[in-house]
Design goal:
By secondary structure, this protein is α+β, with helices and mostly antiparallel strands. The protein has one domain. The chain contains one helix and six strands; from the N terminus they run αββββββ. The strands form three sheets. The protein has a two-stranded antiparallel sheet with strand order 1-2.
Amino acid sequence: MSGQCFLITVFVLSLAIAGPAVAQQGCVKDSYGKVTCAPPGGTARVDIDGQVVSGRGDCARNQSGQVICADTPGAGPW
């Protein structure tokens, strides 16, 4: 029975650790601490001014540090 208790404890602890990480996936905090989430299949990033930029596709920084996001789901910004 102690083996079952150990497995249950490990399972519960893994959910407690992984749960918040999964829930926060695709979400970021701006400079004021407000959490914003990307649309389904999209990406959210914080720009150089601390504001959240999100798109239906992927987001990336260009050479000047601006965040550019794609409007097409699953597409890249370039």
